[in-house]
């Protein structure tokens, strides 16, 4: 990541390897995309997300591991570029779902959710995760 000088996927893979020693994987929740909310980056977002899901599933050894993505808040018009791509995820990648950020509010910076909204998004993600886990598809 050029903005932070880190390698988020490498960090995630290290965490997956550590977590595998202590339990089993039941699902992945994902919330990201603000920095990709530009026309050129957003155009490839769905394909990049599909590749990420495949890599994370391979890393966990669970080929059909449920994956739930959370929408970005509608605080900036360009965030809709990512949300439109996210809406295509369930029809593109099996055992995935999207949690709505509809009606959520930011903490004053037009980027991050306020505490109440973060809590609501978390609950929506949990509901979607349970639905995907129970559906078997």
Structure description:
- By secondary structure, the protein is mostly helical.
- 49% of the residues lie in helices and 8% in strands.
- It is built from six helices and three strands, in the order H-E-H-H-E-H-H-E-H.
- It has helices spanning 8-20, 39-43, 45-60, 79-86, 89-92, 115-135, and strands at 28-30, 67-70, 96-99.
- Strands 1-2-3 form a three-stranded parallel beta sheet.
- The longest helix has 21 residues, at 115-135.
- The termini are far apart.
- The mean pLDDT is 94.
State the gist of this model.
This protein is mainly alpha-helical and 137 residues long. It contains 6 helices and 3 strands; from the N terminus they run H-E-H-H-E-H-H-E-H.
Features:
137 residues; 3-stranded parallel beta sheet; 3 strands; mainly alpha
Overall SS class? mainly alpha
How many helices? The count is 6
Number of strands: 3
Contiguous runs where pLDDT drops below 50 for at least 5 residues: none
Query: Per DSSP, what share of the residues sits in E-state strands of 2 or more residues?
Result: 5-15%
Portion of residues within helices: 40-55%
Query: Could you say which overall geometry the principal axes of the C-alpha atoms support?
Result: globular
The end-to-end distance, rounded to whole angstroms, is 32 Å
- The chain-level mean pLDDT equals 94
Q: Helix and strand string, N-terminal first?
A: HEHHEHHEH
Task: State the major sheet.
Answer: 3 strands, parallel
In order across it, which strands form the biggest sheet? 1-2-3
Our Rg estimate from Cα atoms comes to 15 Å
């Amino acid at each position: 990541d050029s903005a932070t000088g880190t390698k988020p996927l490498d960090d995630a893979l290290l965490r997956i390897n550590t977590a595998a020693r202590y339990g089993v994987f039941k699902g992945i929740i994902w919330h990201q995309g603000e920095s990709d909310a530009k026309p050129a980056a957003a155009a490839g977002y769905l394909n990049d997300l599909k590749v990420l899901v495949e890599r994370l599933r391979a890393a966990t050894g669970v080929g059909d591991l449920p994956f739930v993505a959370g929408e970005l808040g509608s605080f900036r018009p360009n965030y809709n570029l990512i949300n439109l791509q996210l809406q295509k995820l369930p029809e593109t990648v099996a055992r995935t779902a999207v949690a709505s950020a509809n009606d959520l509010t930011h903490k004053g910076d037009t980027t991050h959710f306020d505490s109440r909204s973060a809590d609501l998004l978390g609950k929506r993600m949990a509901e979607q995760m349970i639905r995907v886990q129970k559906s078997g598809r």
